[in-house]
Design a protein that fits this description.
With 424 residues, this protein is an all-beta fold. The protein is 0% helix and 46% strand. It is built from no helices and 36 strands. The protein has a 4-stranded antiparallel sheet, with no helix packed on it. About 9% of the residues have low confidence. One of its GO terms (biological process) is microtubule anchoring at mitotic spindle pole body.
């Protein structure tokens, strides 16, 4: 694997197309810039001066269309948006009430709106690039870091909110109008939600919504039909754990996976079954299998980070043939599961906690970053440990979409790497 030099930038993020990587660069310890590099050779293509900057947390967020780049300055509650290929000046600047505080920001799929999530679950403000006032406001979201889901066709937004001491799922259309309020069964304590992917013959409908309860509360999964009137409840897996932590869809759109709270890995396969009213929705039939209940001893590990490490990770390979998962109890282990055989094919036990992993876009190749400086590459034939000289403290690894470039990002720098496939 060939590595570029290290680039002194903070918070490096790949564009959705994989063509650029953007990061924050401070010149002369005074002026802050957004530096945009090419992923092909690491060349600096654009240098965008930030109008105002202060101490505190910042984040770069790419628009889905690759045209716009947003910088969120959470300390100042200010947001800058660039059309970086046409001008080095922001085309949009938004300032929120700094006393309320901002928790996160995310783009809408149309790349013309972005959502600002205020702290303390106060509200979510929806801004349009050419407007001076919020276009819509969503009050009382249940969470600030989850509970938001866009549909696969980008036409719908589902938000988990609290209304009269109960959880409610509010569905908005692309014009930010409320089109539906879905109430789960009484006493439900929902943890998160996702849309079901579209299947044939269902593209004219709003897809069904899956929501699941907090893992310490129960093991129920709720599947809401498109009309919101009917709901199927999946439960009865208490013998495997006390609930679900996360549910994801494969890129093929026909398999969902979940991690159970007590560290058992459960796989759900789309098969025929009367889960919801099939005359209304054909996207949500399930059957559950226990993939593995390991019989060998694994060494537990604690992160050296002072802040909480987001150890819970689960991701399908691009061809949906494998699942990679890291659980909270064993943050130093990566479980790799063969989907077709329903078996664990590898457990990558590291000396330190796993910080990030990423599947290649084409080949079943997994790259893992830990608290060590090496990067680890797994494929079905085996695993390699590769020293990389450019980033001392890797925090994030990501394959660039559409090419073979690997981003390795640390606390103060990043580098790019290109694998030599002849050695794999």
């Amino acid at each position: 694997m060939e590595f570029t030099e290290g680039f002194k930038t903070v918070g490096a993020r790949l564009s959705p197309s994989g063509r650029y990587v953007a990061g924050l660069h401070r010149r002369d310890a005074v002026q802050l810039f957004v530096a945009i590099h090419s992923t092909t050779n690491g060349a600096l293509h654009y240098l965008l001066p930030v109008p105002e900057s202060g101490p505190g947390r910042r984040e770069l967020v790419w628009a889905p269309n690759n045209q716009f780049l947003l910088l969120a300055d959470y300390a100042l509650a200010r947001f800058f948006v660039w059309d970086f290929e046409t001008s080095d000046r922001p085309i949009c600047t938004v300032t929120e009430n700094v006393r309320l505080g901002v928790e996160r920001v995310l783009w809408a799929p149309d790349s013309l709106h972005f959502l600002v999530v205020l702290k303390h679950r106060i509200a979510v403000r929806i801004w349009k690039l050419d407007e001076k006032f919020p276009q819509a406001v969503i009050h009382s979201p249940k969470f600030t870091d989850r509970g938001f889901a866009f549909s696969p066709d980008d036409r719908w937004l589902a938000v988990l909110v609290r209304r009269e001491f109960e959880d409610v799922i509010i569905v908005y259309d692309s014009a930010w109008r409320v089109v539906q309020s879905v109430r789960p069964p009484e006493s439900a304590n929902l943890e998160d939600l996702i849309f079901c992917p579209f299947l044939e013959r269902t593209t004219e409908l709003r897809p069904a919504i899956i929501a699941w309860e907090a893992p310490a509360f129960s093991d129920r999964i709720f599947i809401f039909a498109p009309d919101g009137a009917s709901c199927k409840v999946i439960s009865g897996l208490a013998e495997y754990g006390s609930g679900y932590e996360k549910v994801v869809w494969s890129k093929a759109g026909w398999i969902a996976a979940a991690i159970v709270f007590k560290e058992k890995i459960v796989k759900e396969v789309n098969q025929l079954g009367n889960v919801v009213d099939r005359s209304k929705c054909k996207t949500c039939p399930f059957c559950c299998y226990l993939v593995d209940e390991s019989g060998f001893q694994l060494q537990a590990s604690r992160s050296v980070d002072t802040k909480r490490t987001p150890n819970l990770q689960i991701e399908f390979s691009n061809d949906s043939a494998y699942i990679a998962a890291v659980t909270s109890e064993y943050p130093n282990c990566v479980w790799i599961i063969n989907v077709n055989e329903l078996e664990v094919v590898a457990v990558l036990q590291q000396a330190s906690s796993v910080r990030s992993f990423s599947w290649h876009d084409v080949s079943p190749v997994l790259v893992v970053a830990t608290e060590a400086s090496n990067v680890f590459v797994w494929q079905p034939s085996g695993c390699l440990s590769i020293p990389q000289p450019a980033v001392n403290d890797p925090r994030l690894v990501r394959w660039a979409p559409g090419n073979d470039t690997l981003l390795i990002s640390g606390a103060t720098s990043f580098c790019l790497a290109v694998p030599d496939w002849a050695t794999y």
